[in-house]
Amino acid sequence: MDLALKAEPMATESLSPKKERAINTKYADETLRILQLHGNSVGSLTTEKEKALRRKLYWRIFGLLSAINLLLFIDKSTLGYAAILGLFEETGITKAQYNNLGTFFYVGYIVAQWPGHYAMQKLPFGKFVAALVFMWGVILLLHCVATTYAALVVLRLALGVAESVVVPAMEVTIGMFFNRYEQSFLQPFLWLTSAAAPVCAAFISYGLLWSHSAILPWKLFMIITGGVSVLLSVLVWFQYPNNPAEAMFLSLEERIHTIKRVHESSKSSIEQKQFKKSQFKETLRDPISWLFTLQSFTLVMSNNLTYGQQNLITKALGVDSLGSTLVAAAGGGFGVLFCLAGAYALRWWPSNLAFHGLFWCIPAIAGGIGMVAIDWDQKLGMLACLLLAGHTYGNTYIIALGWTTSSAAGYTKKLTRNVMFMVGYSIANICSPQIWVPSDAPRYYGAWISMIVVSWVGTPLILFIIRFLLKRRNAQRKAWAASLTSEERKTHELGVVEELDENGSMIRREVEIAMLDLTDMENPSFIYPI
């Protein structure tokens, strides 16, 4: 048996009296050892200490994640900017082949999902992330020697593999170091950097269009972004911690308090190195996992608008290459403002996630309708609708991505659900470039109508179905908890870990339930965020 539980998992719908839950130490949370050795030797977490700890985590963890995310999304947009920096002229590719390059990136992305997540669980977490950043930097640099369609296909496949699990890794890291409340508003703040990426990329492109180098601007763009990525990978190698227990920039007391804050908030484990088949199977049986996968697919069907088509549509409207980069910068700045608004909305109203998701899709719907209905000669109105459609629904993606993992417990279950979410994301990105049929240019009515219906109307509907199911589960759990005596409630808050000492004798230690790495279905005390 892959998980040494002494009792059967508890289903959400039929919560039964608790039998003792005991597991071998190797199946417990990776942070168990530091808590056993030092958990009782540190002082209490005062308000002043917690403020200082949060500041340190914001600067050291969140700051590093923001830098990675900024470069990641600049790198994702390299093909879109290369399109106006001389890519077509040098390589001789067609518009259909250009769309295919966007598709091939996500073929590599989806193929690497499961191997990447498995490696993420088994290998030292921080070093694994650093290796990914280094790989994508080198692959971007290699774009400079690609002058044919076939060479670009190979590089886009490889880049998709390198970037495939970076976003899930960052999501896992946020869950390791921050409590649920902090996660709710840090998610949008992190994705401010993805909204800011087009601004940075646009100004780099604008400067390169003024260059008179023998090297074409699109290759210089790859050199700059790839080189900075390689340099960042060195910083990540030395600064990215595997988990809170190994975060050397924190004192021992701060590491203990970080772990306890996360455990108290999530009632779930922080990291676990053993792949648990029972959790994998549970994830596949849980309808919530499939609903999150479906909404990932529906929303991301609109993703190629921003990262592949926006600059080309802008040029079709009569804006030259220099002007297109400024329009992209304006769109990025617009997206940053929307992310800021979303972050503050979640900070002050952290619940009702489905309503938040719906709210940020409404401007995209309005922009999409405008792109279909407004006369093509109304250039300013068309540009406004283009930016409104492409830079507002990102908040919905952020909310759903964070909700995917925060509504699950058990490390293998979280990783498996991440894989499913990213598979939906990848399939949508494979399909997304293909809805922009060249013969439909420049209006692309079919593409716009499909995004309005599938992405910006369909996705909120799915989120409300998820909300309904999780709210029903929470009601059952609260009713069950209310029926317990104080003694019964205490037994559900504790579990047992077992290990052999140096003499071969079995040692049993009582620990908090979060240390057992149980899933949300196995732990009836887990309350779903809605």
From TrEMBL:
InterPro entries listed in its UniProt record: MFS, MFS_trans_sf
Gene Ontology molecular function terms on file: cysteine transmembrane transporter activity
Record membrane topology: Multi-pass membrane protein
Keyword hit for Lipoprotein: no
Cellular component GO terms, alphabetical: membrane
Location of this chain's protein in the cell: Membrane
Transmembrane segments: 57-74, 128-151, 157-177, 189-209, 215-238, 326-346, 353-374, 380-403, 415-436, 448-470
Pfam families in the record: MFS_1 (PF07690)
Keywords in alphabetical order: Membrane, Transmembrane, Transmembrane helix, Transport
Protein's UniProt name: Major facilitator superfamily (MFS) profile domain-containing protein
Species for this entry: Penicillium nalgiovense
